[in-house]
Specification:
Distance between the termini: 62 Å
Mean pLDDT: 91
CATH superfamily of the largest domain: DNA ligase/mRNA capping enzyme
Helix content: 25-40%
Structural class: alpha+beta
Radius of gyration: 30 Å
Number of helices: 25
CATH topology of the largest domain: D-amino Acid Aminotransferase, Chain A, domain 1
Low-confidence stretches: 1-5, 598-613
Largest sheet: 7 strands, antiparallel
CATH architecture of the largest domain: 2-Layer Sandwich
Strand content: 15-25%
Bound molecules: nicotinamide-adenine-dinucleotide, zinc ion
């Protein structure tokens, strides 16, 4: 099915649109198998609503407008109080207008708002009798839902027994976290089933499925608490009069999971401005959340305000959904490309039918590795759910398996390296050319000579090609034994450029170990990791003597990375020897080798502590640099800034998290600064920072 036109031209097109919408909606709520992504569905419904506004006499009874779940769902278990949908706003202006209209309706400004993430799952009502979970009911058409009590016990955050023997109904969202979704698809395909297209569909399909041979966990977040018919009058009255924020505290006290456990807890806000600030904060954190959100829900917090405002047939008047742009679209997987990276890694990349997500046109998506393709059961020509949030590289979430026509083709994996034709090492998840970094010697050389590694000016891509093609350089170490005559024999190499290049090569021999190590391009050791390894071990000999266990003493190297680093260094032994013989420095200035006891003292922390206890004004701090540097720091590259931070005893990082202690924010700092503010992390200007570490600059 192609995306239906949102502009409806005549009654026949209108009737078709209604039919499409009802079908999509039914599939969406029933098993999470709609043919449309949310954006396409929403455009269709907006088109229907626009046509109906112009032709009020011709509205079809099946029309989805004005109905909970588009009228496509039914149920047989009546709800105590209707479970409604939410109206939407899409901009600060629309929100301000909504809050003003709500103020007019209730006769005064809203006393207090509650602001929560809009969790992207499906609503359920969980009924507790004397503290025991007895029944789970879907939202259905809003007045009655479907009994899905068979799912009791599979939903994390929804305990079988509350902390108190109360009779209440808890309402909230059932969803799958990203990890639960990956797990669910793995289990499902292992049982011969088709993968779900995204976490929301997976939750919808899983919640309603009965008698499956396997169970997969889901997660619950409560956002409502109300009395049942059997609730005693006292508690029932109290629940009816409590503010939403107090109900959430109560729900958490009963043992129910709420957003309070997440990076985006529900808060209360006194003014519309504060609400909008919180909307911005939540939006900034969206890409990093372990579960999907599609907006922010804003509610009048006080029960009195809610009661005065009342509800319509589809949505309450005291709450609104501030929608965020869609981060998922359905498009087609046209092709899979296999690219060979600098170190010989052969990585697949999906070529997509171009699709616009949140303002950018997406044509490629990462696929990680061949196992990833197999696990996702992807095929060429598949419709795929593509996800893109923040600055993260777009990824294919899963195929939309129910849209398969049978014409999809299996994805063929390469049998030889697509660049050089050698064999492929498939022993690890990430495939690699057997020629390793020599598969792409030119790329490996230009990387090694780059500004952040050996910094050999005059040895860029073109020169590297020349040297390799002339047969003068067969590995990195050959650079250091090049003679003047050899260089002069090359085209476009005059006396001056030859002397300059030779001088740069000689100077490079004195680079610190961290940069030499980085130049080797060991998998998993970028610039900052190379620095940490070099500082920890101080000499190349100590690095090479380390086994996987010792390697793990370096901060950031875990059980997975350590053995592969050790193995690769062993593989590089001849090259490292050759470099040392050529006179390349193999020590890290200012670092002292770990004492022999550090590794086997049985105290895993002692090693990394000794690195940090080196002192300095940034000791124990994790620092992130963002935006343009000024003053004495102006000329420093990001890599040099990071080196500086580490010299001053700190740890440099490129992303802001709860672990960050300081963010140096220069001009033009954007999302990282915003995130630091949200998390309450200390900010410093480049000037203030320069003062703090003055002794280490230059
Ligand atoms: N792809 C399709 O074919 C298709 C079909 C139908 C509907 N849809 C999508 O579903 C949405 C509309 O459906 P809807 O009515 O189920 O949801 P909605 O977007 O109108 O919002 C209401 C729902 O938000 C949820 N919610 C999440 N966090 C909440 C919180 N903190 N407080 C209160 N409620 C919270 C609840 O489940 C509630 O029922 C649209 O975005 C539409 O795109 C898609
Ligand atoms: Zn190759």
């Amino acid at each position: 099915m192609t995306t239906p036109a949102a502009v409806i031209v005549d009654a026949a097109a209108y009737a078709r649109a209604v039919e499409d919408a009802v079908k999509a909606s039914a599939a969406y709520y029933a098993g999470g198998t709609s043919a449309l992504d949310d954006d396409a569905y929403d455009r269709l419904v907006r088109g229907i609503a626009a046509w109906e506004a112009q032709h009020p006499g011709q509205v079809l009874p099946d029309s989805p407008t004005g109905k909970v779940a588009g009228g496509a769902v039914e149920g047989d278990v009546p709800h105590t109080v209707a479970m409604l949908s939410l109206d939407n706003v899409f901009s600060p202006e629309e929100f301000t207008a909504w809050s003003a209209s709500l103020a007019r309706r209730i006769g005064h400004d809203v006393e207090r708002f509650s602001v929560e993430p809009k969790l992207d799952g499906l609503a359920i009502a969980a009924r507790y009798t004397h503290g025991r979970l007895t029944r789970l009911i879907t939202r259905g058409d809003g007045t009655a839902g479907e009994d899905v009590s068979h799912a009791i016990g599979t939903i994390e955050g929804l305990p079988n027994e509350l902390a108190e023997p109360v009779t209440v109904e808890v309402r909230g969202e059932v969803l799958m976290t990203t990890a639960q979704f990956e797990h669910a698809n793995e289990v499902r395909t292992a049982h011969g089933g088709q993968p779900f297209a995204n976490p929301r569909n997976a939750a919808a399909g899983t919640l309603r499925a009965k008698d499956r041979a396997y169970t997969v966990p889901m997660t619950f977040f409560g956002y409502g608490l109300l009395p049942l018919a059997d609730t005693e009058a006292g508690p029932a009255g109290r629940l009816g009069e409590a503010a939403h924020s107090d109900l959430m505290i109560q729900a958490a006290a009963y043992g129910v999971n709420t957003t309070a456990t997440t990076a985006v807890p529900g808060i209360t806000a006194g003014t519309a401005e504060r609400v909008l600030a919180r909307v911005k904060e939540i939006a900034a954190l969206r890409a990093d959340l372990p579960f999907g959100i599609d907006g922010i829900v804003i509610k009048a917090d006080l029960a009195a305000d809610q009661q005065t405002a009342g509800s319509g047939s589809r949505a309450p008047r005291w709450a609104i959904a501030y929608k965020l742009p869609a981060v998922e679209k359905i498009t087609r997987l046209l092709e899979v490309e296999w690219n060979v990276g600098r170190t010989g890694i052969i990585a697949p990349r999906g070529v997509l039918e171009p699709v616009e997500i949140d303002g950018s046109t997406i044509t490629y998506a990462t696929l990680h590795n061949p196992a990833d393709i197999t696990r996702r059961d992807l095929r060429l020509g598949d419709h795929v759910m593509v996800h893109r949030a923040g600055d993260v590289i777009p990824r294919i979430e899963a195929p939309v398996a129910h849209l398969r026509t049978g014409d999809e083709q299996l994805i063929v994996f390469p049998e030889v390296c697509p660049r050089c034709g050698s064999g492929i090492d498939t022993s690890e998840q990430r495939w690699r050319c057997e020629n390793g970094r020599n598969c792409h010697l030119v790329a490996a050389l230009s990387y090694a000579c780059g500004r952040d590694q050996l910094d050999i000016e005059g040895l860029g891509h073109t020169r590297a090609v020349q040297l390799v093609e002339a047969g003068l350089v067969a590995d990195l170490a050959d650079l250091f034994t090049l003679t003047r005559d050899q260089l002069l024999s090359l085209e476009r190499m005059g006396e001056t450029s030859t002397d300059n290049l030779l001088a740069a090569i000689t100077a490079a021999k004195g680079q610190p170990l961290s940069r030499v190590l980085c130049a080797l391009g060991v998998r998993g050791t970028g610039r900052s990791m190379s620095r940490r390894i070099a500082r920890y071990f101080a000499t190349m000999d100590h690095i090479r003597a380390a086994d996987a266990e010792t390697m793990q003493q370096v901060e950031g190297i875990g059980t997975e990375k350590a053995p592969s680093i050790v193995a690769e260094l062993a593989e590089l032994a001849p090259l490292i020897d050759k470099l040392a013989t050529a006179g390349v420095n193999m020590t890290e200035p200012g670092a002292t080798p770990p004492s022999p006891a550090a590794g086997d003292a049985g105290d895993a922390d002692s090693g990394s502590e000794s690195v940090e206890s080196a002192g300095g004004p940034l000791a124990g701090m994790t620092v992130v640099v963002t935006g343009a540097m000024t003053g004495t720091l102006e000329k420093l590259s990001r890599n040099q800034m990071n080196e500086l931070i580490e010299r001053a005893g700190g740890r440099s990082s490129s992303s802001v998290s709860k672990k960050t202690t300081l963010v140096v924010a220069g001009e033009g700092a954007g999302s990282k600064r915003a995130k630091a503010e949200t998390l309450g992390i200390r900010l410093a200007t480049p000037d203030a920072f320069a003062t703090l570490i003055a002794d280490y600059v230059g």
